[in-house]
């Protein structure tokens, strides 16, 4: 479990580096899309695993996390950080148990590590973006 979390954290660091290099001062848009993609991945797992019982829940998750992406665009990047933090609960409480055999072993834990790092990065990013806007 710990190894999966650490792998998720390492993947997040790599993604942050990539996003900063590819989209300087615009990587927050990358993380908006990323939050929705993080939810869509679980829809794909349910479809591949032919778990129709979870499909409405997973599709609801796409809309739920899409709402946070939308709110972060309209109001504040804090909404984006909150969305990534809520995704930790999505991974931990909905997908980390035996009720979701369609999710690959270790994926929810890796996702938890990834989500923690991205939420922390966005929280670190917010004051920096405010300074850019003031200049």
Defining key terms:
single chain, 135 residues, mainly alpha, 81% helix
**Structural class computed from helices and strand pairing:** mainly alpha
Average pLDDT works out at: 92
Major sheet attributes: none
Low-confidence stretches: none
Gap between N and C termini, in Å? 44 Å
Compute the number of helices.
5
Question: Approximately how much beta-strand content do the residues carry?
Answer: under 5%
Radius of gyration: 15 Å
Measured as a percent range, the helix fraction is: over 70%
N-to-C SSE string, H for helix and E for strand: HHHHH
Count the E strands: 0
Shape: globular
Structure report:
This protein is an all-alpha fold. It has helices at 2-22, 27-48, 55-74, 77-95, 107-134. Helix 3 (55-74) runs antiparallel to helix 4 (77-95). The N and C termini lie far apart (44 Å). It is built from 5 helices and no strands. The chain is globular, with a radius of gyration of 15 Å.
What topology emerges from the helices and strands here?
Blueprint: H1 2-22, H2 27-48, H3 55-74, H4 77-95, H5 107-134
Short précis:
Helix content is 81%, strand content 0%. The chain has helices at 2-22, 27-48, 55-74, 77-95, 107-134.
């Amino acid at each position: 479990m710990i190894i999966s979390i650490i792998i998720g954290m390492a993947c997040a660091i790599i993604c942050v580096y990539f996003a900063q290099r590819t989209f300087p001062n615009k990587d927050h848009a990358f993380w908006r899309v990323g939050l929705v993609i993080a939810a869509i991945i679980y829809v794909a797992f349910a479809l591949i695993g032919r778990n129709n019982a979870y499909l409405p829940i997973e599709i609801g998750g796409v809309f739920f996390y899409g709402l946070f992406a939308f709110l972060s665009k309209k109001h504040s990047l804090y909404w984006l950080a909150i969305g990534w933090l809520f995704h930790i609960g999505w991974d931990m409480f909905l997908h980390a148990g035996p009720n979701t055999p369609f999710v690959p072993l270790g994926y929810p834990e890796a996702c938890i590590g990834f989500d923690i790092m991205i939420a922390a990065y966005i929280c670190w990013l917010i004051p920096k973006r405010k300074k850019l806007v003031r200049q």
